[in-house]
Amino acid sequence: MVRACGLGLLLALLLPMVGTSMPGTVVRINKAALSYVSAIGKAPLQRALQVTLPYFLDRSGEMLQTTRIQILNVHVPRLHLKFVADFGVRLLAAANFNFKVFRAPDPLELMLPVVLLADARVAQGPIQTPVISISACYSLFGNASVPDGGNSTSPALLVLLQKHIKAVLSNKLCLSVSNLVQGLNVHLGTLIGLNPVGPESQMRYSMVNVPTVTNDYISLDINAVLFLLGKPIVLPVDATAFVLPRHVGTKGTMATVGLSQDLFDSALLLLQKAGALNLDITGQLNSDDNLLNTSALGRLIPEVARQFPKPMPVVLKVRLGATPIATLHTNNATLQLQPFIEVLAVASNSAFQSLFSLDVVVNLSLQLSVSKVRLQGTTSVLGDVQITVASSNVGTIDMDQVHALMGTVFEKPLIDHLNALLGMGIALPSVVNLHYASPKVFVYEGYAVVSSGLLYQR
User: Which stretch is the leader sequence (predicted)?
Assistant: First the structure.
């Protein structure tokens, strides 16, 4: 993994998360993120600036001497980052370099203050990943001093040493920052990797345009493509451009991530096409509280009792032919499922016999959350489950009597199955080692917003 300076860490946090048009996410990295990045970026920047110096040619004596100079350490007491509108990010770092000059007979230690200025432009790469480049970099040097206050060093030698160090560092420091950023581009390339949704389905993100930069935030666009068995999932109608309003989520948060209706529709369509929402519900025949048997049905449907004088297991085959519908209103997210249920009984020859089938409409409350980099959901039933008879091989069915039984044996397994799927979640745009910290999810009309801090872990 490439070591990252403060600027590199900022851009690693910025670029994985984005806004898009089909289906879309809009992510803004706000000013609050800069203080965090400045704090965690000092140590990596110090390591990156600890470069190797060539030997110093000492002409101060009667003979020409070569003297080794080593950077003992670099301390960065100040690292400041800010957004520059229509450009990118500007870095200002104050660093103190401590050197050891291996000069006979007594080594010499020097301290040299340096101010480093760098401007980084963020662009879209040829493979639709973020690409960072240093467009300008300057090193401003102060005056070298002897930390121990010794007076044995001649002023003329000190001037020559300082001139030599400045000449070397003026190129090396900016080259180190540039190399660091170039290496970071490889790290940012992990944005386009496939993220699993299910056993046979994945998501892939890619940038769709250049970032929007203001003095207050950077906003990037990413397109989310979902795949089933290697084939992209396409919404049946053209998705519309998603525009995230300015003041949403939590004020002063590091990251504001807008998730459009299209993203929810696309993810649900993927789950439906993959058959992940289908399930078979069975019961234990010998269990005292098992209602999935022909005896329980026979008490409500006489024809079932006639055809099955002995208790036999019953299976509910739940299939979702229609795509689930997510609806996002302010402070309220709901999910509607329209499963088709075929009720089967095991005959004496172990073959399945269809008893009847049902059309069902289930309205669910949807709660959203984020864990690390995954958007997750949990559901609970809203109101009554609507059940109507689609077909019957056991004569007339009184749904007033059957409704309570079917709701009892159907609702909990369905909710458990659905919550297990939604609990696995789908990956939000990210690069490796990046997590969302203390995220909160807000629901608005037609979209959801994640307000979150950012946590970069090696």
Answer: 1-20
Do 152 and 238 belong together in one domain?
no
**Three-state DSSP class for residue 333:** strand
For residues 298 and 445, state if they share a domain: yes
Q: What is the pLDDT of residue 14?
A: 42
128 within a domain of the structure (yes/no)? yes
Omega before residue 105 within 30° of 0, cis: yes
Q: What is the pLDDT of residue 134?
A: 92
pLDDT of residue 229: 87
> pLDDT digit string (tens) for 273-331?
999 999 999 876 555 667 888 888 999 999 999 999 988 889 999 999 889 999 999 99
Residue 16 has pLDDT above 60, yes or no: no
Of 139, 155, 190, the residue at which a domain comes to its end is 190
Per-residue burial over 405-437, b = 16 or more CB atoms within 10 Å of its CB, e = otherwise: bbbebbeebbbebbbebbeebbbbbbbeebbbe
Look at residue 81 and tell me if it is in a domain.
Answer: yes
Q: Are residues 176 and 263 in the same domain?
A: no
CATH at 109 = 3.15.10.10
> What total number of domains does the chain contain?
2
pLDDT at 151 over 60: no
